[in-house]
Every structure is written in structure tokens, then in C-alpha cells.
Specification:
Immunoglobulin-like, C8orf32 fold, five-stranded antiparallel sheet, 5 helices, 17 strands
Length: 317
């Protein structure tokens, strides 16, 4: 599948801002399941756009502005070709040991960092009843158990916006019984890591035919005979060609699409629009000059901020 993705972020400030620094993690990855053919960032001001690769392998673009306008628009557009490999957690033949643990796995160095509970996916006493219910049976296939965990979360908790925010710990989902994709993903990560299974947070997009496209989050699990493979607890399905990965990390705090710091006071409003569409073939090199206009709903985040404030784009989908 060939997908064109547009991700527009508009920042509005009630008071003038004297300086602004921004990091963007919006460029889709190229790996075994997808290839990013083109990527373009447009900013409403002239900027010196730089980039680097962070410790998780994500491409990060960054720039700063002196005395930016009170309204700033950023558009990230990409063309990505995805492939549905059919290799999900269920393809793994790896099983838990007789004492229902993952002891004895030869973990690669890259997987070790995805074992500790931390950040939003931290340990909490509210997690203990779930761990009792979801404790794996001895010698059960790990991939099958991973799918069971995801289905449990999807069936137990209600999908609802504006109940949590992008950095909410799993305590909020467990206490309120409601949340969005990052909450479901953080909870799944916490459960998997509690039983010694490496799990990481994935930020990206999901393309839905004839429905509103979304920025999205899901979980990837590392299995010895498969490697990293994804499952979406929000929709209850393995990751397929409709998913586009932009960044991976231990939790959301490692992968925010837009993270910035600025000098200023007042109220900040972030408005986000995401649109995806399928293409019959790869476009020309000048495709970004002919982008279809964005005609999709706007998702807003409103916050009051002090001097030198951090600003992160919430992924409330």
C-alpha cells in the first residue's frame, strides 16, 4: 500500500513569544515493513532545519525561532509504502517456561532497555489485580498470551478522549476505566514487562478507509524467533499495512511528535490535523507542491504556560 500522510500542527499563543525551540519526530521509518520514499517539512517561517538520529533510531528534526509570530504552522508530509508481512505475535513458537517465566531468553542489547517499568508505564498497586488475572500459564506460547493481554485491555477499558493526557500514568486508566491509545499501549507495555517480555511504545499513524485517519500508538513486543512485532490493543489487531511507524521508545515521553520549549507567558493552543490517502503509484519528486488540501477535523489542546515552558503535542487519538 502506498500512503500519502499530512500532519499539520498549528501553535497559537495569546501573548508574544520571544524565543521558540522545537523537535519533531514525524518522519516515518524505513524498515522491513515500510519504506519512506519522500518526506517534507514546511514551517510558516524561514528556519534552519537540522536533524539527527536519537538513541532509539528515530529521525529527529529541530529548529529554533527568535520572536516567532503568535500563530505558527508546521506541516509534515510523507509518502510511505507499507507491506503486510503477516508476521504478528501469533507467528512465534516461543513458549514460557514451566514456571511461566521468560527466564533463559538470550536478549539482544537493544531489547534490554525495554524491560524496566518506568514513566507512564510504571508499577502501581492498581496494576496488581491485572497481573494476577493475566499471569501466563506454564508453557503457553508467548505470542498467544500477548494477544490475550491486548484483548483483555480492549475489552476491560473504554476508549474515551479528554479523560487523560499524553503523559498520564497507567494509574489514571486503571482508576477511571477510560483512556485513549497511548493509555492502552502503556498498560500493555507494563503488563508484558512485568513478566519479563520486552515491549516498546510505537508512535505513528493508522490509515482507515472511508474514516478519519489518526495519529496513533501501539505496542511492539520482542520475541526470540520473530524479533520485534506489533499489536494494537486499541483496535485489537496485529499491526498491518494500514499502520505507519514514525518513532519507537520506552514510552510516550521518548517519542512525542512535537516537543518544544519557549520563552513567553499566556495561553497556548495546539491544533492538530492528520490526513492519509492511498495512492495508485509513487508520485513525482514535486509531489509536495501538489498536496490535496486538508479537510479533516481539528483536535485541540489548550494549556496555560509560564516562562520557559515545555510544550508537547498530545497524541490523544
Amino acid at each position: 500500500m502506498i500512503l500519502e500522510i499530512q500532519h499539520e500542527t498549528e501553535m497559537n499563543y495569546s501573548q508574544p513569544v520571544s524565543e521558540w525551540l522545537c523537535e519533531l519526530r514525524m518522519e516515518p521509518m524505513s524498515d522491513a515493513t515500510q519504506r519512506c520514499h519522500s518526506f517534507q517539512i514546511s514551517v510558516g517561517q524561514t528556519v534552519n532545519l537540522c536533524h539527527y538520529v536519537d538513541g532509539f533510531g528515530n529521525r529527529v528534526h529541530h529548529f529554533n525561532l527568535l520572536r516567532p509570530p503568535t500563530t505558527l504552522r508546521i506541516l509534515a508530509a510523507s509518502v510511505v509504502e507499507t507491506e503486510d508481512t503477516g508476521i504478528g505475535p501469533m507467528a512465534s513458537q516461543t513458549a514460557f517456561s514451566a514456571d511461566a517465566t521468560a527466564d533463559g531468553w538470550q536478549l539482544p542489547l537493544e531489547a534490554v532497555d525495554y524491560l524496566p517499568l518506568r514513566g507512564p508505564a510504571r508499577f502501581t498497586p492498581l496494576l496488581e489485580p491485572l497481573l494476577i488475572e493475566l499471569r501466563p500459564m506454564p508453557r503457553i506460547r508467548v505470542g498467544m498470551w500477548v494477544c490475550q493481554v491486548a484483548e483483555y485491555i480492549r475489552g476491560r477499558f473504554e476508549y474515551a478522549r479528554d479523560v487523560t493526557d499524553a503523559t498520564s500514568p497507567i494509574d489514571h486508566l486503571l482508576a477511571r476505566g477510560k483512556g485513549v491509545c497511548q493509555d492502552f499501549t502503556h498498560l500493555m507495555i507494563a503488563v508484558l514487562r512485568s513478566f519479563g517480555v520486552p515491549a516498546r511504545y510505537v508512535s505513528g499513524y493508522i490509515h482507515r478507509e472511508n474514516k478519519e485517519s489518526q495519529s496513533h500508538a501501539w505496542c511492539e513486543v520482542w520475541l526470540p524467533d520473530v524479533g520485534w512485532t506489533g499489536f494494537d490493543p486499541t483496535n485489537g489487531c496485529p499491526v498491518n499495512g494500514h499502520f505507519v511507524k514514525t518513532a519507537v521508545g520506552r514510552d510516550f515521553t521518548d517519542v512525542p511528535p512535537n516537543k518544544g520549549i519557549y520563552r513567553g507567558t499566556g495561553t497556548e493552543r495546539i491544533q492538530v490535523r492528520v490526513a492519509t490517502r492511498t495512492l495508485e503509484r509513487l508520485p513525482s519528486l514535486s509531489w509536495h507542491d501538489q498536496l490535496a488540501p486538508l479537510d479533516v477535523p481539528v483536535h485541540s489542546v489548550l494549556r496555560t504556560v509560564p516562562v520557559y515552558s515545555d510544550a508537547e503535542e498530545a497524541q490523544q487519538q
